[in-house]
Design a protein that fits this description.
- The chain is of the alpha/beta class.
- The chain has two domains: about 200 residues, Periplasmic binding protein-like II (D-Maltodextrin-Binding Protein, domain 2), CATH 3.40.190; about 190 residues, D-Maltodextrin-Binding Protein, domain 2.
- It has 17 helices and ten strands.
- Strands 2-1-3-9-4-10 form a six-stranded mixed sheet, with helices on both faces. A four-stranded mixed sheet has the order 6-7-5-8.
- Strand 1, helix 3 and strand 2 form a beta-alpha-beta unit.
- Helix 3 packs antiparallel against helix 14.
- The radius of gyration is 22 Å and the shape is globular.
């Protein structure tokens, strides 16, 4: 696929061009007049099964039909398990056919930079209209020369915890250091209420825990040059030693095999006291107050609060899961697909989807943290600006293709998993360092 030159890029993203396209889309939205596409034009959009089912229902019943009318096309929305998207994307690229637009999680778009369409014109338009993208959304969807995907949202990752259970062990607020969290976890596990955390191969809760945990100890994959691998150092070894004991003393050890749904079920069934997650646990419990109850028979949602990951010796960090829409290079409907992405990410349309998320997702642009939605429920407040606090896989280097490969192979997560299963800390870190070095060779 041909690369665009700097002059062409500037033409595409210049103020005049953006204004013209914005005016055109505004006219479409206001008048309901479809753009001129060939009769029978179709669009296939592949995305994950949302952890907020109401949002998928809204897409299917309202937003997609409205898009078909506004754009004059037929839209097929397909949803699958998030862990299956990478395999599906690779298969589509190899066969040269498949969905026109695919939702890329984390920094996966970097893996497919040579197989997607340059969407700089659309991304620059959306960013300008909505007060700019978060840095996290930018680094995963831009390869430094062009936009390889259009950012869609960021899933905030916070620890959901049982307020009353922590109060029962003498804590009126959530522990703010790993040492304090470990101490709390030991007491809770002794009561049959362990902490819950996945160290499995799953796209969300595993990397959003293991990467910030490593950073909080001062560990990192590479230097800022993006090439010099420095994982095998004292900081990483110390983090692994702590985790080995922390895991056995405080956690549900079945978490080694959990995916992104197991911890939700464990929390809702009352078998764990805290877990890193999006807000889906709280939102589901709140939507079904008669179904999800505490051991005292009261609505569970009233006993759930959220907190960021604790601090380590080198500070407090987070990684919040970004999502972006990739326009695939094999697509025969590229103009249709660009119009679709531009339409569905436009503020008036996106607002409906954003409302349905109830704070589970923040927008990829900063304008959404000002939305009135955040004033409706103080328990959701920690998610409002979560995207501003995140770092990115690959730190201290860029969140590039190599960083995406390390993440996709779950090397950092496996470093902790191996140690939790008995491998000496030094050996686990050495193994992970060598695996990261192979990627960067």
């Amino acid at each position: 696929m041909a690369r665009i030159g700097r002059r062409t890029f500037l033409k595409l993203t210049g103020t005049g061009a953006i204004a013209a396209r914005t005016a055109g889309m505004t006219a479409i939205l206001a008048a309901g007049k479809a753009p001129a596409h060939a009769q029978g034009s179709t669009l296939h959009w592949l995305r994950w099964n949302d952890f907020v089912p109401a949002s998928d229902e809204l897409l299917r019943k309202e937003i997609v039909p409205a898009g078909e009318k506004a754009l004059g096309i037929k839209i097929t929305l397909e949803t699958i398990n998030g862990n299956d998207i990478q395999a599906r994307t690779t298969s589509a690229i190899q066969s040269g056919s498949g969905p026109d637009v695919i939702c890329g999680l984390n920094n996966w778009p970097q893996l497919y930079a040579e197989s997607v369409v340059d969407v700089s014109d659309v991304a620059e338009e959306i960013g300008k209209a909505q007060e700019g993208f978060y840095k996290e959304s930018t680094v995963v969807a831009n390869d430094g020369k062009k936009w390889i995907a259009v950012p869609w949202c960021v899933l905030g990752a916070q620890i959901a915890y049982r307020k009353s259970w922590f109060e029962d062990i003498g804590l009126s607020k959530f522990p703010d250091t790993w040492e304090a969290y470990r101490d709390a976890g030991k007491k809770l596990k002794a009561k049959g209420q362990p902490l819950g955390q996945t160290l499995g191969h799953t796209f969300g809760d595993a990397p959003t825990f293991s990467y910030p945990y490593l950073w909080s100890w001062g560990g990192k994959e590479v230097e800022a040059d993006g090439h010099t691998v420095v994982l095998n150092g004292k900081a990483a070894v110390d983090s692994v030693k702590f985790m080995s004991a922390f895991w056995k003393e405080a956690h549900d050890e079945g978490g080694l095999a959990w995916d992104d749904t197991n911890n939700n079920r464990a929390f809702l069934s009352g078998t764990i006291s805290a877990t890193l997650n999006g807000a889906s646990i709280y939102l589901l419990a709140k939507s079904k107050p008669d179904t999800y109850l505490t051991e005292k028979g009261t609505p569970l949602w009233q006993d759930i609060l959220h907190a960021p990951l604790p601090k380590g010796p080198s500070g407090q960090f987070g990684y919040h899961l970004p999502m972006s829409n990739m326009l695939m290079g094999y697509s025969k409907n590229q103009k249709v697909a660009k119009d679709f992405i531009r339409w569905i990410t436009s503020k008036d349309v996106y607002q409906k989807w954003f409302n349905s998320q109830q704070g589970y997702s923040v927008g990829a642009t900063t304008i959404w943290e000002k939305d009135p939605l955040w004033g409706k429920d103080p328990v959701m407040e920690p998610f409002r600006v979560a995207a501003r606090a995140g770092q990115f896989p690959g730190y201290a280097g860029p969140a590039d293709r190599k960083a995406a490969e390390v993440l996709s192979k779950y090397i950092i997560t496996d470093m902790y998993s191996k140690a939790a299963q008995g491998m000496p800390a030094e050996e686990a870190v050495k193994w992970a360092h060598e695996e990261v070095a192979k990627v960067h060779a």
